[in-house]
Amino acid sequence: MKFLLVFDFDHTIIDENSDTWIVRCAPERKLPNGLRNSYQPGHWTEYMGRVFVYLGDNGVKEDEMKRTMTTIPFTAGMIDLLRFIGENKELFDCIIVSDSNTVFIDWILKAAEFHRVFDEVFTNPAAFSSTGYLTVQHFHAHHCAKCPKNLCKRKVLKEFLDKQLERGVNYTQIVYIGDGGNDLCPVMFLKKNDIAMPRQGYTLEKKISQLAQSLSPVQCSVLVWSSATEIMSYLKLLIKE
Hints:
This protein has helices at 18-21, 33-36, 44-57, 62-69, 78-87, 102-111, 153-166, 184-189, 203-213, 228-240; strands at 3-7, 92-101, 120-124, 126-128, 134-136, 173-178, 195-198, 221-222. The protein is of the alpha/beta class.
């Protein structure tokens, strides 16, 4: 009996958006209007690439970025939840599927000593170039019209589950914890026995309730949370069963 926990990262594990937090490193902690207005819907990764070039051009180095990123607060109750999962790893496989990037997530999890809680992290690959600039790439290519160009979380989840099945791992239940519009696609992939846990007041919760109102509800159960202690209470019930 094993459960799969799937976490989004921004506004779910951490209480901020890691990509917008990095702007604190910019001169006067803001971006020029031309750069800010250059974002085009569905092309966030390209936009962040331009942000990283701007930071590099202004002499912002890796250690300063790291210091800034590791000050992001975790969501209420999340530290206790991640400790609880870490203590019960024999029952839970745990992955992150995020539109952030490998460098930011790695820094934040390692600084808080939570990197061992997660079996895999699926996010946009990032690295520092030989000139010290942070670069980011698309996670994969896909054909899903609902998702941003660089990442379809449903595709990630489906491929992960297929790979686990090949290894003989079949999950009793999938618990999906997220907040954003790009979490709806994987939630719609979940089955009747699974559970979606959207964060209260965020886009995912609103989109799930709109679907219910238009009489095409998601198949899985839905449990809204505002503090991660509510998620922990649910997981404790699960393992008692």
